[in-house]
Amino acid sequence: MALRRLIGPAAVIVCSVALIHSPAWADEHQRTPSMMHGAAKIIGGLIFEWPKTIVDATVEGPPIAGTIVGVLAGAARAVQTVVAGAVEMATAFDPFGAKSRE
Questions:
Q1: Residues 82, 38: one domain?
Q2: 75 is in which domain, residue-wise?
Q3: Global pTM value
Q4: What is the mean pLDDT of residues 48-76?
């Protein structure tokens, strides 16, 4: 009886994992670097990443230690996101059209 109740959720989990990691999904989410996506990463990293990480760590951890970990981890994630955005913008920058030549 208990096994019968587990078969439905197990089938849903197996099917969702199989569909998430399909080649079509990977191909669709593999995009070329763009200036706008890099700028969005920089703005998101500067404005949203640090407070979001502080709130997440405070809620999930002990009140004082969670806040301290959130401040440190938030600063690290913000720097990481800003650097990733700058690298993406630098990769997308093509002043002479060298990437469009074949």
A1: yes
A2: 32-93
A3: 0.62
A4: 91
